[in-house]
Amino acid sequence: MTLTERAPAKINLCLHLGPTRPSDGRHELVSVMQSLTLADELTLEPAPEGAGEDRIVCPGVEGPNLGGAALAAFRAATGWEAPPQRLTIVKRVPVAAGMGGGSGDAAAALRLAARASGLGGHALMHELATGLGADVPAQVRPGRVLATGAGERVERLPDGGSFGVLVLPGTRELSTAAVYREADRQGLARDEGHLRRRHAEVQEAASGGDLPLEMLVNDLQPAALALAPEIDEALAAARAAGADVALVSGSGPTALGLFLGSDGAQRARLAADALAGRRPAPLVAAPEPNWPA
Ligand code: ATP
């Protein structure tokens, strides 16, 4: 049996950073996470005869793979004993770019394993996702969510209005951990009370549909800019190409231009055409509508 899944990228329409939790040292956050139509493609099929264990094929990504970690975690938790599988991941989402590529692959690998085995209820999928990484729970069911805690508390939000996304990938990879360390060094985290007020404001605004422009902010942006100052030029290029909002995606270094409104998709495409000479080449995406439960 061969199964396929898309693994949409995510962007953080807002990311408010809070203090670290005493329990596990991870930062609390309040973030509206939106999946994009830009997506990796995963295929799960029986591995060729003679393979002793699951195989992960993921051109462009070296080292341990989050998709493989997800399969292993699923097998361990459910006792799924199917013969070795081959998981092939075709990357379309920029790597180490702040677009949740690896996390999205992990979530998609969990969905594939659940489909292939017939095992894995909602609660178990969420628990496995939480163990795989802070950005994984929000991506088990792609769409738009409000993520809180360290990302493990996920609340479904209604689809927002239409908009287009111009993606300007960075010229280097940026480690999420390094960006968080720099955020700590700069003292960017808000205190508990401030974060709680932000939570209430974002929840109210997002549950009604679109966030007002002034709420589209990423607290990690100054940290990403300090480590990769060239992002500033990419943000300026997005603005100059007509973006209504330019912001860093997650922990960067990808710069995003958001083009709001029903003509947003078309304006984002025109902007990408105008910036076609850039390397890495600009990409265009749209919000991925909420997947059915
Ligand atoms: P996030 O936003 O989830 O914190 P990111 O989007 O900044 O992460 P990823 O593309 O997930 O970054 O890559 C981070 C690192 O994870 C890479 O340097 C890579 O070595 C590793 N990795 C493991 N599995 C994958 C995968 N399937 N796709 C991409 N990177 C992977």
From TrEMBL:
Residue intervals of the GHMP kinase C-terminal domain: 213-272
InterPro entries according to UniProt: GHMP_kinase_C_dom, GHMP_kinase_C_sf, GHMP_kinase_N_dom, IspE, Ribosomal_Su5_D2-typ_SF, Ribsml_uS5_D2-typ_fold_subgr
GO molecular function, one term: ATP binding
Active site residues of this protein: K10, D135
Keyword annotations from UniProtKB, A to Z: ATP-binding, Isoprene biosynthesis, Kinase, Nucleotide-binding, Transferase
Domain of life from the UniProt record: Bacteria
Taxon lineage: Bacteria, Bacillati, Actinomycetota, Thermoleophilia, Solirubrobacterales
HAMAP family given in the database record: IspE
E.C. number: 2.7.1.148
Protein name: 4-diphosphocytidyl-2-C-methyl-D-erythritol kinase
Residues at which ATP binds: P94, V95, A96, A97, G98, M99, G100, G101, G102, S103, G104
Main function: Catalyzes the phosphorylation of the position 2 hydroxy group of 4-diphosphocytidyl-2C-methyl-D-erythritol.
GO biological process, one term: isopentenyl diphosphate biosynthetic process, methylerythritol 4-phosphate pathway
Family to which the UniProt record says this protein belongs: Belongs to the GHMP kinase family. IspE subfamily.
Enzyme class: transferase
Pathway: Isoprenoid biosynthesis; isopentenyl diphosphate biosynthesis via DXP pathway; isopentenyl diphosphate from 1-deoxy-D-xylulose 5-phosphate: step 3/6
Ranges of residues in domain GHMP kinase N-terminal: 69-140
Entry annotated with the keyword Transferase: yes
Catalytic activity: 4-CDP-2-C-methyl-D-erythritol + ATP = 4-CDP-2-C-methyl-D-erythritol 2-phosphate + ADP + H(+)
One family name in Pfam for this protein: GHMP_kinases_N
